[in-house]
Amino acid sequence: MKSFSQWRPHPWHGLSSGAKPPRRVHAYIEIGPFDMVKYEVDKQSGYLRVDRSVRSSSQHPSLYGFIPRTLCANRVRDLMDGADSGDHDPLDICVISERPISRVEILVNARVIGGLPMCDHGEADDKIIAVIEDDPLWSEIDDIFNLPPALIDRLMHYFLTYKHVPNTPNNVSIGQPYGFEHAARVIEAALADYVDEYGEHP
């Protein structure tokens, strides 16, 4: 008999991290490139919540969500210079697609190519960068440095500005983008941080 989930699983705790992490992962999408507000999974219920309206005019350049069963805690913190802690959220991921995808609360088979080392008020908040696994345009990309520089610039600009409130300090910084090798270490650290906090999958 084939198995299935009788009830909707929690997207953070009840879904698989992917077919073959750290290269091939599942991305649970919270925000699409057409969204002008920030959605975030409610940690208690697993439903999507409106987190806040975005004050800037920037739109997200890609699909955005997280890798299930990951956590940014001490191991992730230790991989980022200057971070005092992890942000204690699941590991964020941006997924690049040739075709526009307007739906959210979807699962995407993603192939990791790199990441951005973002530090938000002293908390490690890495943004993993990936492409849709079978994307006709991007699927041959193996490393972030093979992306057009303008696309990396857009991603960095978005994350540097989307929380900014005029006339207040913006305590967010992003270091140099990193390739797959370091992204793999961050993902493996986030998977281990999750197990430390929540245990192995039953």
Descriptive overview:
The protein has 3 helices and 12 strands. The protein has a single domain (24-142, 173-198), classed as Inorganic pyrophosphatase (Inorganic Pyrophosphatase, Alpha-Beta Complex), CATH 3.90.80.10. The radius of gyration is 16 Å and the shape is globular. Strand 8 and strand 9 (123-124) form a beta hairpin. The chain has helices at residues 74-78, 149-161, 180-198, and strands at 24-31, 37-41, 48-53, 63-66, 85-86, 92-96, 107-116, 118-120, 123-124, 127-132, 172-174, 178-179. The strands form 3 sheets. It has a 5-stranded mixed beta barrel. A 4-stranded mixed beta sheet has the order 5-9-8-11. It has a two-stranded antiparallel ribbon with strand order 2-3.
Question: What's the topology here?
Answer:
Blueprint: E1 24-31, E2 37-41, E3 48-53, E4 63-66, H1 74-78, E5 85-86, E6 92-96, E7 107-116, E8 118-120, E9 123-124, E10 127-132, H2 149-161, E11 172-174, E12 178-179, H3 180-198
Order of SSEs, N→C? EEEEHEEEEEEHEEH
User: What is the percent of helical residues?
Assistant: 10-25%
CATH secondary-structure class: Alpha Beta
How much of the polypeptide forms β-strand, as a percent range? 25-35%
Shape: globular
Radius of gyration: 16 Å
Q: CATH homologous superfamily - what is it?
A: Inorganic pyrophosphatase
Largest sheet: 5 strands, mixed, barrel
Main structural class = alpha+beta
The overall pLDDT average reads 92
Number of helices: 3
CATH architecture: Alpha-Beta Complex
Regions with little confidence, pLDDT below 50 for 5+ residues: none
Tally of structural domains: 1
Instruction: Briefly note the CATH topology name.
Output: Inorganic Pyrophosphatase
Distance between the termini: 20 Å
